[in-house]
Specification:
Layout lengths: L1 H4 L3 H31 L7 H28 L8 H32 L16 H11 L1 H21 L9 H24 L24 H4 L4 H6 L13 H7 L3 E2 L12 E7 L24 H9 L1 E7 L5 H10 L17 E2 L2 H7 L3 E6 L8 H7 L4 E3 L1 H8 L12 H12 L6 E6 L25 H18 L8 E7 L19 E2 L1 E4 L7 E8 L3 H8 L6 E2 L15 E5 L2 E5 L3 E5 L4 E6 L18 H20 L1 E2 L6 H8 L7
Parallel strand pairs: 2-7, 2-8, 3-11, 4-17, 5-6, 5-7
Antiparallel strand pairs: 1-12, 3-9, 3-10, 8-10, 13-14, 14-15, 15-16
Length: 663
């Protein structure tokens, strides 16, 4: 009797779903083992809640992926007893769940680079020409994970066969249909409850942020999440929900992205601007910015940039506003951040705006964008064009001018020859000009030209030889550019796109340390020098540069002019581990949009003492600023408007009395 019950349609389905839960659990265990340094240790006391959360999200993922399989496995029809029907169910189960497991094993590697799970945003990258090549490189480097996936798929096939074919629960004609229909309806009801995360009326379909309900650590929330939940719950999120923390008049006095420069602010005049966006240049690479990580005399991995920082204006506490390269372009060029979804990938990015290149073009600047990857790669060229840049140079232009021998085999042209090419091209532009370049080499798969392989430092992580090579490439670029007449009339900006996936210090593995980047300005004539120890962010570059060249028209930017707007709060805001991180000179705050999740003193670099757990903790100024910024951000996204509305009454008031802002 018991043996017969184990072979009924319902029992067989439950056993096959149980196999999936076990295999996803094993994938999660590997996820933690590989990323334990970032996720943190797990205490026995928190294990039950983590398991409960994991079960909840795995349930949603498995229902999303197997809803069709579940339905047709229980559909009250005698076709289920046909061989072809069972073969179809078999192949659906194996193929779909092999993809589910592949996504979860891919997450193990992907998380190391972005501190987030694989979502619908990443589907954008499949359109790149080099996706297959890079994916194969990742697979070769992470063969152990490929082996784990293959063994998991093999286990799926074996266990499917071992469990065997199902048999009807009731063989009588009416009993068959009545019983099976009831079971099917019950299964549908359970699936609906599973997708929603419960059956209560107050329960809404769970989202990524619900993972924080099962852990106080926003980092461990990533351990709870699973795919395909993360992909399907983020797909097609084009509708913007605007939070309303403040009425319009109060909002304008707390924070506004509208800037009204004062006419008497000192400036350097109309200078050329060259921005070098450096791939994965974490502050950790610099011995100047992190002397505690290097013994005396150790030059670190950015000795040339460190020498420029000593002669330029350096933001020692600069933070990235995103986790990926495509987050950096809007942050740097338009002073628009990316939070849950990269701004570049949102349909709202096509709204009306005037980024830095467009404003400078209005002032008579020649504008150019350089990137050594193939034309159209990563959407960089498309966004550069959207930002108002006229001249775009890519791998194809380089190879037409200098041949095909400098391709790195993965991403594009090696940094050294491409920066040399850029220096020559800049010499053909009429002044003033604006140009930006996105470097490539200091990126996975962490390769450098053969002729430098033995002379570069091996470093403490895989990225360090590439960082040292790019630093050397910049030295040669600056030496070449210094021979040109435009050199002394130029403001050079050096800023990382985001931190590196490879870290070696404990303090750089916290969400805050894992946002700390290299960022500074350099003027060859020494007109602008200093060490700025206040918190800054990529968003601050556009306002600061406009202030330095004496731009006096109203403009739209989410950052602040660090020299000309002392009334605005020094702060850095980004989205990490499904929460908003606000970094100030004294505090780090993690917020889910509705409440404070965690808070740490800036001196607590390892973030071990959560202030938010103390009854007396309050952070009204930082929280109000963050809420006001989020309200402004999502409001402008919903309206697709990134220009100053000078007719709007609250902002006319703000323009005439900017001292009311952000105090």
């Amino acid at each position: 009797m018991k043996k017969n019950l184990l072979h009924t349609d319902l029992a067989v389905l439950l056993l096959r779903m149980a196999v999936l839960y076990i295999l996803l659990g094993l994938a999660r265990l590997v996820f933690w083992a590989v990323n334990a340094a970032s996720l943190g240790s797990i205490n026995w006391s928190e294990l039950p809640q983590l398991l409960r959360g994991a079960l909840t999200f795995d349930t949603v993922s498995l229902i999303y992926a197997n809803a069709i399989f579940i339905f047709f496995s229980l559909l009250p029809t005698h076709l289920r007893e046909r061989k072809w029907y069972q073969h179809t169910l078999f192949w659906y189960y194996i193929v779909v769940n092999a993809i589910v497991l592949a996504l979860n094993y891919s997450d193990i590697v992907y998380f190391n680079y972005t501190s987030k799970r694989f979502t619908a945003d990443e589907l954008f990258f499949f359109g790149n020409d080099n996706t297959g090549h890079v994916a194969l490189k990742f697979a070769a480097e992470n063969w152990f994970l490929v082996l784990c996936w293959a063994l998991s798929v093999a286990a799926l096939i074996v266990m499917y066969r071992v469990i065997g074919r199902p048999r009807p629960m009731v063989r009588s004609r009416w009993g068959y249909y009545v019983t099976d229909t009831a079971v099917l309806l019950g299964a549908i009801a359970l699936c609906i409850g599973g997708v929603r995360g419960g059956f209560s009326r107050s329960v809404r379909p769970i989202t990524l942020s619900n993972a924080t309900q099962y852990t106080a650590s926003t980092q461990k929330a990533n351990l709870i999440l699973s795919n395909p939940f993360c992909i399907l719950r983020t797909a097609g999120q084009s509708r913007i929900a605007v939070p309303h923390y403040f009425d319009e008049a109060e909002l304008a006095t707390i924070y506004t992205p509208y800037h009204f420069p004062a006419n008497d602010t000192p400036s350097l005049g109309r200078r050329n601007i060259v921005i070098l966006i450096l791939e994965s240049f974490s502050a950790e690479h610099s011995a100047l910015l992190n002397p505690d990580l290097y013994v005396a005399g150790d030059p670190g991995y950015t000795p040339f940039l460190d020498s420029l920082m000593r002669q330029g204006y350096t933001f020692t506490e600069a933070y990235a506003n995103g986790r990926k390269s495509i987050d950096a372009l809007p942050s740097v060029l338009a002073s628009i951040p990316s939070f849950a979804t990269p701004f570049m990938l949102m349909p709202q990015s096509l709204g009306t705006g005037r980024p830095l290149p467009a404003l400078l073009a209005d002032e008579g600047y020649t504008t150019a964008f350089f990137n050594g990857s193939p034309r159209g790669s990563m959407g960089f060229g498309a966004y550069a064009n959207q930002a108002g840049i006229t001249h775009i140079f890519s791998l194809e232009d380089y190879e037409q001018a200098r041949g095909t021998n400098d391709y790195d085999g993965y991403w594009g042209i090696w940094d050294e020859p491409f920066l040399s090419y850029m220096a020559d091209e800049l010499g053909t532009f009429p002044e003033p000009f604006f140009a930006t370049v996105f470097t490539l080499t200091s990126h996975h798969p962490f390769v450098v030209p053969d002729r430098y392989r033995d002379s570069l430092p091996s470093g403490r992580t895989k990225v360090h030889p590439g960082v040292a090579y790019t630093d050397l490439s910049i030295r040669h670029f600056m030496e070449r550019a210094s021979q040109a007449p435009w050199f002394d009339r130029t403001i050079f900006v050096f800023v990382a796109d985001h931190v590196s996936s490879e870290t070696f210090a404990d303090k750089t593995r916290t969400p805050t340390g894992n946002s700390h980047i290299i960022c500074f300005l350099y003027t060859p004539d020494g007109a602008f020098r200093g060490m700025d120890n206040r918190v800054s962010q990529q968003l601050d570059l556009m306002p600061t540069l406009l202030g330095l060249i004496g731009y006096r028209e109203p403009y739209f930017a989410f950052g602040r002019d660090v020299l000309g707007e002392p009334e605005r709060m020094p702060i850095a805001v980004n989205y990490i581990n499904q929460s908003y991180q606000a970094i100030t000179d004294s505090l780090v705050l993690f917020h889910d949009g509705a409440r404070i999740l965690n808070a740490y003193d800036r001196g607590d670099t390892l973030q071990r003492h959560n202030l938010a757990g103390e009854a007396t903790f309050r952070a009204p100024e930082t929280e109000r600023f963050l809420q006001a910024m989020l309200q402004q951000y999502y409001d402008h996204l919903s309206r697709r408007s990134y220009v100053v509305d000078t007719t709007y009454a609250p902002y006319r008031t703000a323009a005439s009395d900017t001292t009311t802002l952000n105090h």
